Amino acid sequence: MTRLLLIGPPGAGKGTQAARLAEIYGIPAISTGDIFRSNVKNGTELGTKAKAFMDAGDNVPDSLTNELIRDRLEDADAQDGFLLDGYPRTTDQVRELDSFLASHGAALDAVVELEADPEVVVARLRKRALEQGRSDDTEAVVRHRLEVYSEQTAPLVKIYASRDVLVTIDALGEIDAVTERITEALVERGIAAADTTSR
Ligand code: ADP
User: Fold this and answer.
1) For ligand 1, is residue 54 a contact (CB within 6 Å)?
2) How far is CA 50 from each of CA 81, 91, 137, 139, rounded to the nearest angstrom?
């Protein structure tokens, strides 16, 4: 049973590492960004409401986000642990998640912060824009997303540090090397990979 959060600026590689960590720890990776994007793609009401915020690089309002994540965390596959990517993103969302976890008698095991230089992430996102054509990866929107991150999300790092659950990882370098840094740091905190032989 492992409950993890991944936090870091856009372009730090959260999605990439989330997929790998989900595999290693045998838990679902839950990305609010992915959930919103799939809603936009499928033209749902939620997607229609979220799209303008996403395209502008702004956070989607909590009124749309909190309920969505509550519902997802109630799903059967999240009962034995999860990895949250992209949530919480604001101090209000931290409060929301705290109350959800408390009401389920659960707590986070670790918060993994992926640290990366803004110029490096801008370059990575420029490359991803060419490869994937995400509508929020244009240079101006990327800069705005970085601002939103430092204003609204970066303060969360302090909150989790004060709770003694924060693990800060250098997100630069090879993808494998970053994954290894994360798993090693988690082992130091007594968080081991899933035992895949017994599954
Ligand atoms: P990144 O972290 O690279 O910016 P994400 O895929 O996590 O990308 O998020 C893309 C967009 O989805 C955000 O800019 C925001 O509009 C919306 N979003 C994702 N998660 C949240 C959240 N927890 N609260 C509000 N908006 C969110």
Assistant:
1) yes
2) 27, 20, 16, 20
Using a 6 Å cutoff on CB, does residue 57 contact ligand 1? yes
Q: What share of the chain is helix, strand, coil (3-state, %, to 5)?
A: 60, 15, 30
Q: Model confidence over 55-91: pLDDT tens digits? A: 999 999 999 999 899 999 999 999 999 999 999 999 9
CA of 114 to the centre of ligand 1 (A): 16
Cα–Cα dist 57/63, whole Å: 17
Substitution candidate for ligand 1 out of 36, 66, 134 with most atoms within 8 A of CB:
36
Taking the model in full, what pTM does it have? 0.93
108-136 pLDDT per residue, tens: 999 999 999 988 999 999 899 999 988 89
Q: How many domains does the chain have?
A: 1
Range of the domain at 159: 2-198
d(CA 93, CA 160): 13
